Amino acid sequence: MAAPMLRLCCPGRRWALACIDGCSRHRRGAPNGCTSSRKRGQSSVAQQPFITAQKPRKGEHEWAAVVGLEIHAQISSKSKLFSGSQVHFAAPPNSLVSFFDASLPGTLPVLNRRCVEAAVMTGLALNCRINKKSLFDRKHYFYADLPAGYQITQQRLPIAVNGSLVYSFCAGKNRSQVINKTARVKQIQLEQDSGKSLHDDLRSQTLIDLNRAEGQLRVDANISVHHPGEPLGVRTEVKNLNSARFLAKAIDYEIQRQINELENGGEILNETRSFDSKLGCTIPMRDKEGKQDYRFMPEPNLPPLLLYDTESLPAGADPQQVIDIDRIREQLPELPSVTREKLVQQYGMLPEHSFTLLNEVGLLEFFQNVMKETRAEPKKVTSWVLNTLLGFLKQQNLAVSESPVTPSALAELLNLLDRKAISSSAAKQVFEELWRNEGKTPAQIVSEKKLELMQDQEALEQLCHAVMEGHPQVVMDVKKGNPRAINKLIGLVRKVTLSRADPTVIKEILEKKLAS
Amino acid sequence: MWARAWRLGLRALVGGRRGFTCKADTKGSGRITAEVIEHLERLALVDFGSQEAVARLEKAIAFADRLRAVDTDGVEPMESVLEDRCLYLRSDHVIEGNCAEELLQNSHRVVEEYFVAPPGNISLPKLDEQEPFSHG
């Protein structure tokens, strides 16, 4: 069975005891907003939504919403969590299923080492306490895609607990204000996935594929509202959230729905709801009868999972059979927050730019490769990468890896710009040409299109002189003190030079001549 | 006697489970209510078809209750008899699977290598929705 999954646990109502303090998100704008994410596998975590506050109506008590997220992420491994069958998407139905996965009697779960390592890594990256002893349990319910009638999970004592994730988002005008928030991670647990069901309504049947690997990242939201200082309200669970945008919409809607219901004297049912993306609302799910009793019991076929660190590692132990938390910590890659901080320190980059660089796959590498080959200032490089390059990519919906302009080409272009061999408008033109990907280098394009800036100072001075002679009225305006007249002169010179002169240099020459 | 045989026969026809109408008057202390039995039957799809089954359940609970006689203050509960065993860690290699044909042979109905199941869970009818039973 089981594509291997990690599940991060959220401080929603179900675990109210652990997480009431500091976990309210006030409707008036979220001073200490707190959503916690459960993650299940791969190292990317869904960004938390930013909830906009509304002005409270007169006479309204303040409401606080509590939101907990349950995130299921598939672990990147070759074989499954409890069996040696392959993990692969889009394989023929039931082709990646072993006897254990099909829940045939007499089969036993065998834990995948790589999945444990992935869970520990995730726990460490999210500042959790790793439980040196964790336990497996059975969670029972009946459904056709769960042939055993239970799912092996970690309910009592999961592998990692009490973590946190500091995240930032850009708000305010121009999205230039960076706000930091912390989401608490209640727990991370390893668990099996169920199979895949295809509903055939026409023939009134369901087709079952036990391969798993259904969705690599899934989120359910648990939402309740209460008045601050009072006990938590009844929570609802919202499923069928297929994107971060819908997640945000569903949570907003559900909070408002619950508030409206309660203010009108109604009550909230502890139910599961589905998000209708077209209507933008949550609706009760049929086929879910009240609160489920999962009859949790210890998984009798799996002893406790014991983890070690360098201190407690038993001497002479088979390295294949023990997991050293310290070793795994050493193998953790640099976390995004550290990378961003380095960018800010090393290049004087604005924090919001560091976010954009890291949020686009391959963009950071692109930037770093350009930096290696150019003398241009980091700020210039940042601007070209985030504005020009990214702009072009987005327009054509391309990934960074598909960019027709290579880091070397951009570096060369920026070098030309840096030595003032071309103007910035010329550079933009060159970039557009490079984007056409006709195999020409920036230098070739510059020479073909005659975009070089005039380097001959004397020739430029003569042209300025000629323009001044030819437009005595404008010269008079400048001398009279009209501030805009000088720009007109500069414009005239630029036209004469076919835009091949640096406007700042033109201005200098003109000012010198006008002064004499 | 004939009437009783007829009754038993009728019960068998309806599958027995739903024929059990006297769950409320269980033997023993009656601490297992009809609601609990119904709840268990729904959760576990176990058929407590008869008074004897419920009595057996009560005896099992009484047997387990004897554990309460032991003072376990300060004693760490044992969750598993395997607690001293080593949990074997398997290396992440693909060594099985690829036996769809064999597995599908187990299925009553198959459509293009998919197992076929009913459209959703079929709920057990509630106690009061059952066919009324004459057992006079």
UniProtKB/TrEMBL annotation, chain A:
Gene3D superfamilies to which the protein is assigned, alphabetical: 1.10.10.410
GO BP terms: glutaminyl-tRNAGln biosynthesis via transamidation; mitochondrial translation
Domain of life: Eukaryota
Catalysis performed (reactions): L-glutamyl-tRNA(Gln) + L-glutamine + ATP + H2O = L-glutaminyl-tRNA(Gln) + L-glutamate + ADP + phosphate + H(+); L-aspartyl-tRNA(Asn) + L-glutamine + ATP + H2O = L-asparaginyl-tRNA(Asn) + L-glutamate + ADP + phosphate + 2 H(+)
Renumbered residue ranges of the record's region Disordered: 29-48
Intracellular or extracellular location(s): Mitochondrion
MF GO annotations: ATP binding; glutaminyl-tRNA synthase (glutamine-hydrolyzing) activity
Database matches in InterPro entries: Asn/Gln-tRNA_amidoTrfase_suB/E, Asn/Gln-tRNA_Trfase_suB/E_cat, Asn/Gln_amidotransferase, Asn/Gln_tRNA_amidoTrase-B-like, GatB, GatB_Yqey_C_2, Gln_synth/guanido_kin_cat_dom
Domain Asn/Gln amidotransferase stretches: 365-514
Enzyme Commission number(s): 6.3.5.-
SMART domains: GatB_Yqey (SM00845)
Physiological role: Allows the formation of correctly charged Gln-tRNA(Gln) through the transamidation of misacylated Glu-tRNA(Gln) in the mitochondria. The reaction takes place in the presence of glutamine and ATP through an activated gamma-phospho-Glu-tRNA(Gln).
Subunit structure: Subunit of the heterotrimeric GatCAB amidotransferase (AdT) complex, composed of A (QRSL1), B (GATB) and C (GATC) subunits.
Listed HAMAP family: GatB
This protein's name: Glutamyl-tRNA(Gln) amidotransferase subunit B, mitochondrial
Name of the gene encoding the protein in the UniProt record: GATB
Automatic annotation (TrEMBL), chain B:
NCBIfam families tied to this protein: gatC
Catalyses which reaction(s): L-glutamyl-tRNA(Gln) + L-glutamine + ATP + H2O = L-glutaminyl-tRNA(Gln) + L-glutamate + ADP + phosphate + H(+)
PANTHER family: GLUTAMYL-TRNA(GLN) AMIDOTRANSFERASE SUBUNIT C, MITOCHONDRIAL
Name listed for the protein in its UniProt record: Glutamyl-tRNA(Gln) amidotransferase subunit C, mitochondrial
SUPFAM superfamilies in alphabetical order: Glu-tRNAGln amidotransferase C subunit
Location(s), subcellular: Mitochondrion
Gene name of the record: GATC
Chief localisation class: mitochondrion
